[in-house]
Amino acid sequence: MDIRSFHSKAEEYLQGYLNDKRHYSWGCHARPSQLPPPGEWRAWLILAGRGFGKTRTGAETLRDWVNSGQCRRIALLSKSISEARAVMVEGISGLLEIHPPLERPLFERTRQQLVWPNGTLATLYGADHFERLRGPQFDAAWIDELAKFRYPEEAWNQLMLALRLGRDPRCIITTTPRPIPLIEKLLKSDDVVVTKGTTFENRSNLAPAFLTQIVKQFEGTRLGAQELYAQLLTEQQGALWRRELIRYQEPPYDERGLPKLLRIVIAIDPATTHHEESDETGIVIAGLSEDKCAYILEDLSGRLSPGDWGQRVCEAYWRLKADRVVAEVNKGGDLVERILRSLNPTIPYKAVRATRGKYTRAEPIAALYEQNRIFHTHPFGLLETQLCTYVPGISAKSPDRLDALVWALTDLLLESEANPALKLWATE
Q1: Residue 131 belongs to domain with CATH number
Q2: Same domain as 193, residue 275
Q3: When you count CB atoms within 10 A of the terminal residue's CB, does the N or C end of the chain come out lower?
Q4: What is the Cα–Cα distance from 251 to 254, expressed in whole angstroms?
């Protein structure tokens, strides 16, 4: 072989090596939401839609932990051992597929175990037989599709008792959300960090035909909110809103990318204090279309200082070319108007006062949902949870997001219909 051929072969080999290294480098492909969050945590709960990349995230995180020596004994828990093998181990994004050949673990089918070259051992378990988790002990675990488990609480408890090796045993949970009590409990736990994501975040790695089909079949449905947008669809007996009343649809947009609507209103239900235990300030933006339907455009609510929510409202007013800001003044008096005027004295503002009970104010709005006159432009998880879990006269906490939504829709639909001659754009 002459020197030219040698260099050509060497360059070809080097390029192949670099391409192979890049292919197996998770850092080159992962989105920020697919990387382990910083800080101290016991479990990382990934609640995400179909096709988000949950399996790849779980497998790659374990691969990193194995390579770094962070874990040596791992539990792989799925609904059944066959599902664990088909998805977590042998799947297209499973542990065997994502490792480069020299790092790839050996799968011992008879023992249902993976053995890495450095001696790390992972054992497959089926959640239906959670009692098999008695006895073994681990320093890491990966749970896949927790929401599908027949006995989720029992399987979780047994695994947590077994997760006791090493200095910092941790667990990854990858699942499409369903409103089971265990997931609701994990969402409130101090040692659980939560990552949420939609199907559409991974659109570059999904077949266009798949995206077209699922949008056509599920967009705007309750199932779509759960399976595509990863919303936890909770509701409560006796609540004014039921999940099937919430429909998803976007309004038409103009050439500037703004909603093509007759009016847009920003409603505020202000909190009277600002500290860790304070209520949220509800900020909901809604618009009215030519066919007299209303669209919930944004939910900007949060535990905010007056300056922060004032800035948020003013920015949204100019960004969306809104027509008016409506605010409840029962608790805050003229605070809202003072804040807004200090930031922008030209914003049209209307103060509203609650002279009737919350049920009386909210009931006609819920009726408009039943008449299919109100649409959400996309799932608003926290707002919709308030709608579907608030039972008048029973629920202790006043829902601030719900209040803001009711004020916005009352201004757009009920007041204009009661008095068509009302000059709705005037400052009051």
Answers
A1: 3.40.50.300
A2: no
A3: N
A4: 10
> Is the same domain home to 258 and 389?
yes
- Of 343, 282, 279, 278, which Cα lies nearest the Cα of 310? 343
- The pLDDT > 70 percentage for the chain reads 86
Range of the domain at 360: 238-418
The residue assigned the tokens 């499409």 is 176
pLDDT (tens digit, 9 = 90+) per residue, 18-64? 455 567 888 788 899 999 999 999 999 999 988 899 999 999 999 99
Q: Which of these three, 152, 185, 205, is where a domain ends?
A: 205
Q: What is the pLDDT of residues 263-319, one digit of tens each?
A: 999 999 988 777 766 788 999 999 999 889 999 999 999 988 889 999 999 999 999
- In the sheet with 263-269, reading across from the earlier edge strand, the strands are 349-352, 324-328, 263-269, 282-288, 294-299, 374-376
Average pLDDT over residues 144-172: 94
Q: Are 88 and 55 in contact (CB under 8 A)?
A: yes
CB 42 within 8 A of CB 186: no
Q: Among 127, 129, 125, 130, which residue's Cα sits nearest to residue 158?
A: 130
CA dist., res. 37 & res. 145, Å (int) = 20
The pTM of the full predicted model, rounded to 2 decimals, is: 0.61
